Amino acid sequence: MVKENGAKENGTEEFDGDWLDLREPFDAAARDPGLAELLMQHVDEKARPRFLDLGAGTGSLTRWLGHFVARPHTWILADADAELMSRAFETMMDAAEDMGWKATWPQKKALLVHSPHGAWRIEGILTNLLEAPTGLPLDAVDVVTCSALCDLVSERWLVGLAAALAKRKLPFYAALNVSGRERFSPPLSGDALVARGFLRDQRRDKGFSGIALGPEAPTVIARVFAAHGYQVHRAPSPWIVPRQARDMTYELALGHAEAALRHEKRGAAQIREWAEVRGTQADDGQLAVRVEHQDVLCLP
Ligand SMILES: C[S@@+](CC[C@H](N)C(=O)[O-])C[C@H]1O[C@@H](n2cnc3c(N)ncnc32)[C@H](O)[C@@H]1O
Questions:
Q1: Is 115 touching ligand 1 by the criterion CB < 6 Å?
Q2: Cα of 178 to ligand 1 centre, how many Å?
Q3: Cα(56) to centroid of ligand 1, in Å?
Q4: Do the Cβ atoms of 271 and 264 come closer than 8 Å?
Q5: Can you give the pTM of this predicted structure?
Q6: How far is the CA of 158 from the centre of ligand 1 (A)?
Q7: pLDDT tens-digit profile of 131-175?
Q8: Which of these CATH numbers, 2.60.220.30, 3.40.50.150, 3.30.1490.20, 3.10.290.10, describes 11-180+211-241+292-299?
């Protein structure tokens, strides 16, 4: 399984749907419920709050955050990848079925998921976020969200988005931003080399016209939104991946090695050897991984 294939023809980074599915339960366990509750208090007076999810992928954030809303509400999923978008709707219908909820398409344009607390109305827009905030329906929503997106974007892009949200006094919730620390256990020679290469890859231009924020994302989001007078809340949201989660530990090791190989040409042999050993450890249930993230909530 390949997680990131690098840039597509339209300049956006490509993500594998199977990888997004694999990480979804770890994402759900990692995101901080306290920040989600705080966001819900902020939208309390809205009878039917509307959320715009940037870089929605297969809709993982909707399936997690929707449960906190507990009343009828709307999601607009925005992504450039048509395949991921159609998978988002399929996955949403499967998830509804698993919970015993009906899912219907009354107007073709939007999916209605009938939860016991009211319907979740979900629609999608295919858009290259490079142009954002241009093209985003900001006047038609109450909250802008994203999950695992802000470490891909550049500071310039974020500054533009923040100005547009501040103008409309819209809250911004950015979950799961990498903060630059990973630990593979047990320790292994080559860890530092792989970590260095992985860190370099996180700062590669990911199609948002500039160096990606990578592990700077939480700090830069906080600074940029605070400059507009936003109140910023941050909370750790680590992936804690136990030895038993073979597929996830295996993919994380492989993904780190692939990313490191893009930059550490002279250390290539050692990185390959590292990946081999880590792969065997994952297969044998002997590899555990912790990846640090931060969730950030910016309230106007
Ligand atoms: C790491 S994935 C996160 C997906 C989802 N939010 C989640 O948490 O599972 C990043 C997402 O951003 C989307 N993306 C990346 N660059 C984009 C761009 N320039 N325009 C629109 N979507 C983009 C990808 O297609 C992918 O779905």
A1: no
A2: 14
A3: 6
A4: yes
A5: 0.96
A6: 15
A7: 999 999 999 999 999 999 999 999 999 999 999 999 999 999 999
A8: 3.40.50.150
